[in-house]
Specification:
The protein is about 80% helix and about 0% strand. By secondary structure, it is mostly helical. Helix 3 runs antiparallel to helix 4 and helix 4 runs antiparallel to helix 5. The model has no long low-confidence stretch (mean pLDDT about 95).
């Protein structure tokens, strides 16, 4: 992302300082610019979304992390990324989603995540069952 190196460096500086909320803000700015310049289906857009998700996890912003990693996993799948990269994004999405407090928006992310898991990782019954179980037990619909 050479044309976005200043924004990336801002995020990395916040990371080095351990200032996770500032890193989240910087990564969001980066993602907005990358998306605006390159579009939704560009690999750099997916990477920027993953970086946002990484900082959201570090900030313990579980709902944002779940949404961002789910989006990144879907983007990797659409781009036919290596299976390991998509699996890592899915693992991060499930981890964050399971930790996030349940609300209507998180429930929607959960349905998206469940569909993605069934489509992309059908041989991984544990995460699929965990997400479906939590969806089934949530009072939010």
């Amino acid at each position: 992302m050479p044309q976005h190196s200043a924004l990336l460096e801002t995020a990395r500086a916040a990371e080095r300082a351990g200032d996770w909320p500032a890193a989240q803000v910087a990564a969001e700015r980066l993602a907005v610019h990358v998306h605006s310049d390159l579009g939704d289906l560009h690999p750099h857009t997916v990477l920027a979304r993953e970086l946002q998700g990484h900082f959201a996890v570090r900030a313990r912003d579980w709902a944002s992390a779940a949404r961002l990693h789910t989006s990144a996993a879907a983007g990797r799948n659409r781009l036919l990324a290596p299976t390991e990269a998509t699996a890592r994004a899915l693992k991060n999405a499930v981890y964050a989603w399971m930790k996030a407090p349940m609300d209507k928006e998180l429930t929607e992310t959960g349905y998206t995540l469940a569909h993605l898991l069934v489509r992309v990782a059908p041989d991984e019954p544990g995460p699929i069952a965990a997400v479906l179980s939590r969806l089934g037990s949530s009072g939010t619909r």
